[in-house]
Specification:
about 375 residues, mainly alpha, Growth Hormone, Chain: A, 13 helices
Length: about 375
Amino acid sequence: MKSENFFYLFAFSMEVCIVIAFFALPLFAIKLGASIFQLGLMGSTSALCYILGSIYLGHLSDILGRKRIIFLGCLSFGILIGIISFADSVGKVILLYMLSGGLSMALFWPPFEAWIADSKMGSSLPKALGKFNIAWSVGAFLGPLAGGFLFKVDYRLPLYATVFLSFCIAGALLCFSPEKKVGLEEKRTIVRNSNQKDSRGTFLSIAWIANFASFFVLGVVRYLFPKLAVHLGMDSRTLGLLMAVPAFSQGWGFFLLAKNTRWQYRLKPVMATQGLTVLAMLLIFFSDSPIFFGAAFLILGANLATSYTLSIFYSLHQEVKKGRMSGFHEAILGMGFLAGPMSGGLVARYFGLRAPYLLCGAAILAAIALEFFILQHKLCRDK
C-alpha cells in the first residue's frame, strides 16, 4: 500500500473508532445519572486537556518524530476507554474521558496532521489535506451510525468495540514504514516564499477565529444535544443518524474545497457558511422535528468543513515546524470545544435545554464581526 493511501485509511479508521466512543459516552453518562451541567463539564475538561496537550505534543513530534507519539495516542485511547466501560459513577467517567478525549487525542491528531504534511509542499498540500479531511469525515459519518446500533444492543458494546479497533490500529501502525523527513530543498522553498507571510498571517487569524466558533457550536451539539434528544423521546438509532449528518455534509464540503482553490485568501466563503449556521441554530431552538434538526446539522457540517480547511491549510502551508503549527491549529479548535460545552451547560442549567443554541448563534455572529474587523484593519494598513 502506498504511504499516502495508508494515511487516509488510518485517518478514516481512527475517526470511526473515536466517534463510536464519543457518541456512546454521553449516553453512557446519562445512564449513570449525569446532569446537563455534568455533560458540559465532561466535554470541557477533555477539551482543556486537549488544548494543553496539543500545544506541547505537536511541537514534541518535531523533535522526537511522529510515529512513536501517534502510536502512544492510539494505545492509551484504547486502554482508557476500556477502563471507562467499568466505571460506576459520573465522576469517574468525566475523569477518564478527560484523559482519553484530551491527552490521547493530543498525542494523535497534531503529530498525524504534521506527518501527512511533511512530504507535501506548495500546491500539493491542499490536495493532500483535502483527501485527509474527506477520509476522517467519512469515519465521522459512519461512527455515530455504528455507535447508535451498538448502543441499542448493549450500552457498553460501543466501548468494547472502540478498545478492539484502537488496538488493531496501533498494531497496524507498527507495521508502517518510517516517516519521511522534510528535506533541505523543501526548507529552502519555504524561505523563498516567505514574502507571503504577512497575508497568510491575517487569514490564519481569521481562520482560527472561524474554527474556534465552529467547534464551539459542535461542542454544544455533540455533548448537549443528546440530552435534548432524550428529553424529546428520541431513540439512540435516530440520534445516531442525526449526529452523522454533520459529518456527511462536512465530507462533501471537504471534497468540494479540495477540487477548488478559489477559497484561498478570501473571506466571503467562510462568512457565508457562518451566516447560514446562525439560521441553523434558530432551527434547533424552535423545532421539535428530526427533519429540521437534520437540516440544521447539514449546515453545521458545511461550516465546519470551510473553517477547518482554512485553519489547517494556513497553519501548515509554507511551514517548517509543522508539528508546532498543527498543535496550535488543534488547540484553537479545542478551545471551542472547551468554551462551548462549559458555557452551554451553564446556560442550559438556568435557561433550558434549548438556550445553548441561541448562545451558539451569538458566538458565530461575534466571530463574523471580529473576522471582518481584522480584514478591514489589514486593508487600511496596506493603503
